[in-house]
Design brief:
570 residues; alpha/beta; EC 6.1.1.17; ATP binding; ligase; Gln/Glu-tRNA_Ligase; protein biosynthesis; 3 domains; Ribosomal Protein L25, Chain P; 27 strands
C-alpha cells in the first residue's frame, strides 16, 4: 500500500469511525466500520489484509475525543452525511407520539398486563415494544402485571409466567416490577369492603338472565338498596366460599339508567368453584373481575398512562365509577386498533395455537409455522427487528397491518454484516466435474475480505439446484470456482474469466460437493432437505449464517447424520 492510498484509507476511516460513534453515541468499532468503508471504496478490497492495521490507530484517536468533539469533527469532514444521519435519527425518534400530559407527572409509569395462558404470539409484542420504547423516551418505569384472576375461562398456564418474561427479555426489555394479581386478592377484598362501606357496592343473587332484563330496562335490582352491613356480611360469606359459582356476585353501584347498558351496575366479584392452578391462590373462591382488579392495581402501582385496545373503551368508563368513589385520579388512556399480521395460515390466538399443539398439528410453540415470538426467536429473528416494526405502527386507533417483510427487512439490517456465507443445494442434481481447480475458495463474506475464505473441495461430483441446471452445451459460473459448460452429465471447466459474467452471458449459481453436509431446513412451509458445503459442519449451533441465494438460517441442532437449521428469511 503506497503513501497516497494509506492517506485515503485513513481519511475515509476517520469519517466512518466518526459516523459510527456519533450515531450510536459510543466509541467506534473497527469491525462495524469495515463493511461501509469497503462498500464505499471497492478499490480498498485488494488490500483487505492491511486495512485493519491502518484504521485501528485512526479509530483509537477518534474514540479519544469527547462526544462534542466527535460531532464537530464530523461536521467539518462530512457535513451532508451528518445532517442526513441526524434527520434519520429525528425521524426515528418521532415514530411514537408524545404521551398526553407527560409533563404533569414526576415519573411516567406504564404497564403491560398479560393473561398468562400461554407464550406470546407476534401480536402480543406490540405492547411491550411500545411501552419499553416510551420508558426509554421518558426514563420511566415498565411494569409487567399478570392479570391472572380468572382461573376458569382464562385459566393460567403455570409455564406461561416465565415464558412471557422470556419473550419480553427477547424483545430487549427488563421490567422494573413484576406483579401477579393472584398474589393480591386480599388487597382487592380490602378495597371491596371499603367500597361497600361507602355505599358503592352491593351483593346480588339475581340470575344472570334476570339481572340482564332489569339492566336493559333501566330498572334497579331488588338487592340494590340493601344496607351496607348486610352487603358486607354477604361479601364475607363470598370470601369464605359459602356460595357456589353463580349464586352471588358483588356489583358496583353506578347509574342504573346510564345510556350505555354495559356500564350499569357491573360485576366486581364473582364466585368460581375451579381452584386456581397456582398453589398460593388455590384456596380463593371469590375472584375480582378484570375491571375491578385492574383499576385498583393501576392506582396502587402508580400507573400514569394506559394503552389498551379500542374495543376496551368501556373498561375506562366502568373503572371511573370506582375511581370516583375513592377520589382517585384516573390515568391517561391511549386507545389503539388491533394489529393484523400477514404471512401465516394460523390464527393468532393463544387458545387456537394451544389446541393445534395438543392435536399434533404444530410441534410446539416454537414450530416455524407458528406465529409466536418463540418461533421467530428459534428462526434467528432478533427481538430488536420486531420492536422496530411494532413501534413503526404507531398508536393509531385504526386497525393496522404488520407485514412480516418489515420484520425481515429490519432483521436483515441487523444481521447481514455479521453472518458468514455458505452454499446449500436443495434436492440437487449431480454432475461430474472436469478440469478447473480441485478446491474453490469463495469469501466468507463478500464485504469483509479480512474474514478470509472457505475451502470447498470439488471431489468427484457436485450438486446443482434443479432450477440452475444449464441446458446441454450452455455455460454457468459456479461461484468461487469458475465457468463450466454442460456436456451430458459432466460440467467441463471452460477457463473463461469473469468478463463473461459482467457481460451478462453467464448466470452465477451456487453448488455443493455431492458428499457435503446433509441439512434439514425447517421453514414456514414445511421441511426442506439439501446438502451444504463441508465447512458448514464447523458452524456452531445457534449461529446465524446466510445460505447464498437461499436465505438466512439459524443452526439449531447437529448429529452424525444431519444438521437441522431454521429458515429465517431471504
Amino acid at each position: 500500500m503506497d503513501d497516497e492510498l494509506r492517506e485515503r484509507v485513513e481519511r475515509e476511516a476517520e469519517k466512518h469511525a466518526l459516523l459510527n460513534a456519533v450515531k450510536h453515541d459510543s466509541d467506534a468499532d473497527v469491525g462495524a466500520i469495515m463493511g461501509p468503508l469497503m462498500g464505499e471504496n471497492p478499490d480498498f478490497r485488494q488490500h483487505g489484509g492491511e486495512i485493519p492495521g491502518v484504521i485501528g490507530p485512526v479509530v483509537s484517536e477518534v474514540n479519544s475525543l469527547s462526544n462534542t468533539e466527535k460531532r464537530d469533527r464530523l461536521e467539518d469532514l462530512a457535513p451532508e452525511e451528518l445532517a442526513e444521519m441526524e434527520a434519520e435519527d429525528e425521524e426515528d425518534d418521532s415514530l411514537l407520539p408524545d404521551l398526553p400530559n407527560a409533563d404533569g407527572y414526576d415519573e411516567i409509569r406504564m404497564r403491560a398486563a398479560p393473561n398468562p395462558n400461554g407464550p406470546w404470539h407476534i401480536g402480543h409484542a406490540r405492547m411491550p415494544a411500545v411501552i419499553g420504547t416510551y420508558k426509554e423516551m421518558y426514563d420511566g418505569s415498565f411494569i409487567v402485571r399478570f392479570d391472572d384472576t380468572d382461573p376458569e375461562t382464562k385459566r393460567p398456564d403455570l409455564d406461561a409466567y416465565d415464558a412471557i418474561l422470556d419473550d419480553i427479555d427477547f424483545l430487549g426489555f427488563e421490567p422494573d416490577d413484576v406483579i401477579r394479581a393472584s398474589d393480591r386478592v386480599e388487597t382487592y377484598y380490602d378495597h371491596a369492603r371499603e367500597l361497600i362501606e361507602m355505599g358503592g357496592a352491593y351483593t346480588c343473587s339475581c340470575s344472570g338472565e334476570d339481572f340482564s332484563n332489569l339492566k336493559n330496562d333501566g330498572k334497579p335490582c331488588p338487592h340494590r338498596d340493601k344496607d351496607a352491613e348486610t352487603t358486607l356480611e354477604e361479601f364475607e360469606d363470598m370470601v369464605a366460599g359459602e356460595y357456589s359459582s353463580g349464586e352471588m356476585v358483588l356489583r358496583v353501584k353506578t347509574d342504573i339508567e346510564h345510556k350505555n347498558p354495559a356500564l350499569r351496575d357491573w360485576v366486581a366479584f364473582r364466585m368460581i368453584d375451579t381452584p386456581h392452578p397456582r398453589e398460593e391462590a388455590a384456596d380463593y373462591r371469590a375472584w375480582p373481575m378484570l375491571d375491578f382488579q385492574s383499576g385498583v392495581d393501576d392506582h396502587l402501582t402508580g400507573v400514569t398512562h394506559i394503552i389498551r385496545g379500542i374495543d376496551l373503551q368501556d373498561s375506562a368508563k366502568r373503572q371511573q365509577f370506582v375511581y370516583d368513589y375513592f377520589d382517585w385520579e384516573y390515568p391517561e388512556v391511549i386507545h389503539w386498533g388491533h394489529v393484523q399480521v400477514d404471512a401465516y395460515g394460523v390464527k393468532m390466538s393463544t387458545s387456537t395455537l394451544k389446541q393445534l399443539i395438543d392435536d399434533g398439528e404444530l410441534d410446539g410453540w416454537d414450530d416455524p409455522r407458528a406465529p409466536t415470538l418463540k418461533s421467530l426467536r428459534r428462526r434467528g429473528i432478533r427481538g430488536q427487528a420486531i420492536v422496530d416494526a411494532m413501534v413503526a405502527l404507531g398508536t393509531s386507533t385504526s386497525n393496522v397491518d404488520l407485514s412480516m417483510s418489515s420484520i425481515y427487512s429490519n432483521n436483515r439490517d441487523l444481521v447481514d454484516d455479521e453472518t458468514d456465507r455458505y452454499f446449500l443445494v436443495r434436492d440437487g442434481e449431480e454432475f461430474a466435474v472436469e478440469g478447473g481447480p480441485d478446491t474453490a475458495h469463495p469469501p466468507l463474506h463478500p464485504s469483509f475480505e479480512d474474514r478470509g475464505t472457505r475451502d470447498i473441495p470439488v471431489g468427484d461430483s457436485v450438486l446443482l439446484e434443479s432450477g440452475d441446471v444449464p441446458a446441454e452445451g450452455d455455460r454457468v459460473w459456479l461461484k468461487g470456482f469458475g465457468a463450466v459448460r454442460r456436456e451430458d452429465d459432466t460440467l467441463v471447466a471452460t477457463g473463461d474469466d469473469l468478463d463473461v459474467v459482467r457481460e451478462g452471458d453467464v448466470d452465477v449459481i451456487h453448488w455443493a460437493p455431492a458428499d457435503g453436509v446433509s441439512v434439514r431446513m425447517r421453514t414456514m412451509d414445511g421441511d426442506v432437505t439439501g446438502v451444504a458445503e463441508p465447512d458448514f459442519a464447523d458452524v456452531p449451533v445457534d449461529e446465524l449464517v446466510q445460505f447464498e441465494r437461499v436465505g438466512f438460517v439459524r443452526v439449531d441442532d447437529r448429529d452424525d447424520d444431519e444438521t437441522v437449521v431454521y429458515f429465517a428469511h431471504k
